[in-house]
Amino acid sequence: MNKINESYSYFSGILLLGFGLLLLAMILSGSLDYYVAPSMHFIVIIGMVFFLLLGLSQIWRSTATAKETHSCNCVAHEETKKGKNSTLLLLFIILVIGFILPDYALSTKMAELKGISYTFPLSDDRLEKNSDFIEEHYTRIAREVEQNEKLIVQDEMFLDVLALLHLRLDSYIGKEIEFTGFVHDDPLLEKGELAIARFAFTCCVADAIGYGFIVQSSEHSDHLKSGWVTVRGVIQTREYEGQLIPQIDVSEMISVYQPELPYVYPTLLTGN
């Protein structure tokens, strides 16, 4: 191995260890949840182990062959050195950015770009193919949320309750509900209406989709345009794009801190 390859192997090993430690830090701090769904964490753990082992292998490989190195001042080696240095520099910049950038949860800003879905997150085709399983699943969800006088929507059940209200809307008209989400002032909605939503994804943040409820509240809509809130209100109905969907008539809207886990995850077959 010549000296250029030896140095390249050593520093690339250091960078691979750095990426492995970055993934380890994200796992231990819980920030991995901002980017990858819990069901995919095992893939990240495998990747972390791979980076650490490969990094150690590269460092050992470079030091074990140090005595065999020889120098060469030819032009071809100089060009190779420049190319490899550029690659290492780029990887180093990416690694530093990964460590210094703060964690950021998708909310109002991303909703302005991607929009929010207010309709049922299950396609008619999947409903037909899995009708028995879906009916059993949402019967269980209904039993859980109906234990109290009002529907208290826990974060992990946000999508389930949204789907339940679409499937059995007539059964819940007039019932009180409480849930937490971020505020989105959707220009497609009417005056006095806001969207209270959460982003959901099945794999990673790249496939995130915003789902939410339309809430009716002239009192709050003028001064609450962003941030996180807990909403208490009564379930009513309205038509949206030719479909009857739930609308919440707000009785109370309280500003809250962003939840520790801002995203929600599907527990059933989701898709368009």
TrEMBL record:
UniProt keyword Membrane present: yes
Keyword Signal found: no
Residue stretches making up the DUF1980 domain: 13-116, 134-266
Transmembrane segments: 7-28, 34-56, 88-106
Any one Pfam family match given in the protein's UniProt record, by short name: DUF1980_C
Naturally occurring in which organism (per UniProt): Alkalihalobacillus alcalophilus ATCC 27647 = CGMCC 1.3604
Keywords annotated in UniProt: Membrane, Transmembrane, Transmembrane helix
Database matches in InterPro entries: DUF1980, DUF1980_C, DUF1980_N, UPF0703_membrane_permease
Domain of life assignment: Bacteria
Name listed for the protein in its UniProt record: TIGR03943 family protein
